[in-house]
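User: Just a sanity check before I run the rest of the batch. Below are the structure tokens for the first item. I only need the designed sequence back.
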């Protein structure tokens, strides 16, 4: 199966004695079966796993595991495989970056059988100067992602667990701009956060302030 080294390494790190790997469950291949828990590791693109997760969660306990590179080293290689350079990436991943992917399936958090675990990792990203990659990488293709270590893990078992992303001093009625300013993220990411929380039923739209939507936290009232 086509997968980065990162995927395989997490599968091995996560597993315990007695686990089964690459198991066929309801016509889907599941990464790890751990007793009654189905574990699916997705290193990117939650959309690709959406159909599988929606089907499996109806009758099974399912956990989606997602790594975020807190620290990353960029390895550049020639097409021959020769090492050209190794440098530390200035970009550091944060837990809140989860929402760039979670926006594709936030409604799954409403299922009691579903949980999500985020692993903060140290990784190496291997790039080849083959001219076939993104212009952002000057044409270099990503050939592999390698796990160097796991520094933290965060488990989200229901929608209330996501209230950690809302700061304590947030106004009772807040906008995406309010959220963006208080937690130090772009307005684009703030919109993804409120979209996800709204889909989970944690917050609700309650009007507008000018052209900006207003939100109110629901779960805190009954927590």
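Assistant: Here's the designed sequence for the first item:
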């Amino acid at each position: 199966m086509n997968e980065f080294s990162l995927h395989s390494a997490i599968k091995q790190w996560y597993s315990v004695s007695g686990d089964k790997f690459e198991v066929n469950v309801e016509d889907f291949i599941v990464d790890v079966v751990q007793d009654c828990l189905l574990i699916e590791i997705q290193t990117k693109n939650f959309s690709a796993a959406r159909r599988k997760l929606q089907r499996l969660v109806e009758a099974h306990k399912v956990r989606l595991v997602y790594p975020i590179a807190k620290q990353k080293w960029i390895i550049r290689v020639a097409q021959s495989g020769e090492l050209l350079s190794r440098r530390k990436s200035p970009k550091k991943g944060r837990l809140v970056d989860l929402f760039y992917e979670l926006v594709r399936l936030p409604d799954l958090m409403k299922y009691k059988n579903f949980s999500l675990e985020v692993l903060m990792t140290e990784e190496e990203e291997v790039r080849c100067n083959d001219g076939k990659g993104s212009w952002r990488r000057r044409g270099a293709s990503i050939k592999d992602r390698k796990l160097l270590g796991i520094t933290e893990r965060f488990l989200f078992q229901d929608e209330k667990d996501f209230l950690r992303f809302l700061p304590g001093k947030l106004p009772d009625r807040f906008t995406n701009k309010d959220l963006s300013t208080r937690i130090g993220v772009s307005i684009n990411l703030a919109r993804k956060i409120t979209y996800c929380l709204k889909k989970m039923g944690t917050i609700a739209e309650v009007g507008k302030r000018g052209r900006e939507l207003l939100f109110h936290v629901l779960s805190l009232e009954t927590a």
